[in-house]
Amino acid sequence: MDALTRAARCSAGDAWLAACSPKPGIVWAVLDMGGLAPIPSGDHWLAAEASLNVALNALHRIPARHRGPLIADASVQCAWWLVPADAATHLADVRQLTVHPPGWILRPRRRATR
Predict the structure, then answer these.
(1) The Cα angle at residue 58 between residues 54 and 59, in degrees rounded to 5
(2) CA quadruple 4, 31, 53, 78: dihedral, nearest 10
């Protein structure tokens, strides 16, 4: 499937995450099969993990213009904020967050299309 056809079928978030991978073709293949696509953090962003409850409460306190992408998985009650690659030092004192180091693998699942 060419990039234009794929882009028409997926969300902008899927395309951005795939582009962040050193091997976007593998990401697209896994997403197209409905799997969890492995995307390492580090070059473009880090993942700050919080419980789903903490993340949803934070959404109400952070102005929309300052919110980064958020990926949530209700089945494990976790959410991951995608934060700038240099954010670990700025977030070190926030007890409710775990900022994963560069190279940590995020495994997003493609959202169902209608």
Answers:
(1) 120
(2) -140
Residue 32 phi/psi, 5-degree rounding, is -65, -25
Tokens representing 70 are 């958020």
Give the integer Cα–Cα distance in Å for 36 and 60. 28
Question: Positive or negative, the Cα torsion across 60, 64, 66, 67?
Answer: positive
Reference 74, options 48, 103, 109; nearest CA is: 109
- Residue recorded with tokens 């560069």: 102
Q: CA-CA distance, 17 to 38, in Å (whole number)?
A: 10
Q: What is the pLDDT, as a whole number, of residue 111? A: 45
| Beta strand segments in 12-58, E | 39-40, 45-51
Q: How many CB atoms lie within 10 A of CB 58?
A: 17
Q: How much is the pTM?
A: 0.70
The fraction of the chain above a pLDDT of 70, given in percent, is 85
